[in-house]
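Training component of the fellowship. As part of building independent skills, the fellow (R.M.) carried out the full modelling exercise for a liganded target. The chosen ligand was shikimate-3-phosphate. The inputs are recorded below so that the supervisory panel can assess the work.
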Amino acid sequence: MVRVEQASRPLRGALEVPGDKSIGHRAVILGALARGETRIHNMSAGADNSSTVSAFRRMGVAFRREDGALCIEGRGWDGLQAPRETIDCGNSGTTMRLLAGVLAGRPFAVTLDGDDSLRTRPMKRVTEPLTRMGARMSDREGCAPLDIHGGALHGIEYASPVASAQVKSAVLLAGLQARGETRFEEPYRSRDHSEIMIRGFGARLESIGPAVVVPGAQELTGTRLTVPGDISSAAFLAVAAATIPGSDVTVRGVGCNATRSGVIEVLRAMGADIELTGRREEAGEPVADIRVRGATLTGTEVAPELAPRTIDEYPVLFVAAVLAQGTTLFRDVGELRFKESDRIATMGRELSKMGARVEVRGDDVAIEGGGSLDAASVESHGDHRVAMALSVAGLSAAGGIRLAGENCVKVSFPGFFESLEKLRG
Ligand code: S3P
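Fellow's submitted model of the complex:
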């Protein structure tokens, strides 16, 4: 249990957030499958990324720390060995789904499992295309544990019913090992970190609008890269600054890939004062310093197309909506039900305890802003982003909040509470 007190003065300061979780997973996976050394700088110490590292350790890949970098001695696709035990993916959906794509093509049997939350999340979306490529996999009513008997794969043309970077990445990782070409298409373009990084490891791949085509039987070559700061973590600090009058906060070195930065678009549409400076590139990804100053926010309509590039930021955007003037309508956000918790239900329930008016209309969420937030005892439901979003709400609640289950913030943002303290001064 932690207390988050109401902010008695504006938030101020400049700070960094841990390395991007999505990019970190991909760097470890590709580094483990490449030939030669990979050095990853600014790798997050978050629990999700650690789940990916320990999965590859169990399959015989050697990692070491050197001068602050995570170094991987890659021995190519065939360097991967059958693990002796079930691989525990912890809370990490990305670990499980991307590993399914890797292991679909490896000539051994593996079981992937995870914690209670991960065991409830849909896996058919990856096992379906991977099975079509020739992999043998079984699940438990569409969920983990997944038993995978990898082997020879062939390329497919696959139109995914969901826009999902995890599904896309699983198919691309299998496609790199397959005979022939693989084409993946999705309803809207999801984050393209895998595409950028596969190229960075020397493999060929072509993006054509919302479709990606990858030739099969490709080798990867080890590389050096620096992981940009995680925009999904920066989003909590950005909303905190945007909603507390007089605040002036800069988060340095944040990844601003256009397929991920919907949170900036939505906050700007709500009237937030956000400035991006010092634009540069790291690991093929655009990076900038993000400066946010407190402003009066107004409600907006968040279109369905924004969902793939905003997906992890909806919980904290719900908080921005509660604190804005007028109504905000988040359209077509049904995918939130399949995250670390059912984020429509958990955020709705917990924000309501603070007096917020959240209405669920099918797959849309309407939030009536302008209300003041009350003191309350709330809980994270074991979901890191719910924990952090509620903490941001707590900063604006008269009397603050008591938050149970706050430990899960370590999944993506170890040091989150310390960062908030730093900004409070
Ligand atoms: C992720 C993709 C998103 C996101 C998740 C990380 C990734 O999931 O919600 O936190 O690293 O590819 P989906 O691809 O299932 O939408």
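The panel noted the following from the submitted structure. The mean pLDDT is 98. The chain has 13 helices and 23 strands.
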